Amino acid sequence: MKGIGFFLRDVGFATGVEVSMQHLARILTEERVPFAVYHYKDDDDLVEQADACPYGCIDLQSMSFGDAALDRILAHHTNVVISIHSTMCNLQAEGDALARIAVLGDGSRPSLRFTCPSASETEGLAAFLANEWLYLPNTFSLPCPDSLVRERSAGRMQPGVPVRISLVCAFRPLKNMITQAAAVEMIAATHPVELHIFEPVYKTPVYQNLRRLTAHGPAVVVEHPQCDNAACFAIEGTFDLGLQVSLSETFSYVAFEHMIQGVPVVGSDSIPFANRIAKYSDVRDMRAHIEALIETPETYQAAERTARASALAVQAQNRADALRTVQRMMDRDA
User: Fold this and answer.
1) Would 59 be classed as within a structural domain?
2) Does residue 328 lie within any of the structural domains?
3) What is the pLDDT of residues 22-36, one digit of tens each?
């Protein structure tokens, strides 16, 4: 049967992959694309559910399975896709992920294709590997009407209230969090500032060092508890400004979720749609971009409008690109 089955590993909490799948599922439902989403506990459960899937295309979201399980699926299905959610930069530092992709994509499994959520990296990976690579955006949004944006905007950058700057991401080295926190501390020397982060699932060395270092600076650190995507999205809309000056991103869900609510974002050149692009290794450059956005009420309000408009344009393009790629994923069964 023509359609697509999406398979995600159940890890006990909502990962970024899970959130992305929820949004994509909503779009596919709206467009009446035949699909189903499956959650598996282990490799045997994955193979069993894949064999029972009525649809011709099997999409494995993220590489949370063993090669033996993949080969068992390929023995019974002629259209299998692996959707990765990492950049080449991240893949180099994520265990054996890149080595596995190099082996699996060497052309010896002709029924296997891959998707990547970055258009440029899709081309880059295709240059290395024999199997087909498709661009599948993984960043969408909860509904966010203009009325909600206006409501949340009214509470931002209030006189006498500290500037609420967010640094919302996984506590990993390539997110460049320590450098960005240093820029916030520099801002705090002249402006009342709060640095907002979310409590991590795992207290990694990056998290521990961030808390140790910021304990000595003038910025107030506000740590929000873990929550689901809807609650996180609502909290993001209350911030005055977002930081995502990371070393590598396939796109950046967080920057997008801030901007579609009108929250300006300073990002790295890995996030080309951000309000301002800062040098990821230059703390003074980050500080200058933050200061430029909050300099006057007029500059800030203009940045809010730009953020919203840019995110809406990105959302429309991502939706169109995702629908086109899902159709290509299924077309092998036509």
Assistant:
1) yes
2) no
3) 999 999 999 999 999
pLDDT on residue 290:
98
Is the whole-model pTM more than 0.85?
Answer: yes
Q: What is the extent of the structural domain holding 224?
A: 146-315
Same domain, 197 and 305: yes
46 lies in a domain? yes
305 or 334, which is more confident: 305
Which are the contacts of 135, defined by CB distance < 8 A and separation ≥ 6? Answer: 115, 116, 117, 118, 119, 122, 321, 325
CB neighbours of residue 103 within 10 Å? 13
**How high is the pLDDT of residue 99?**
92
From residue 95, alpha-carbon distances to 63, 100, 117, 231 in Å are 12, 10, 20, 32
Instruction: Report CA-CA distances (Å) from 31 to 28, 155, 261, 275, 322.
Output: 5, 36, 24, 31, 12
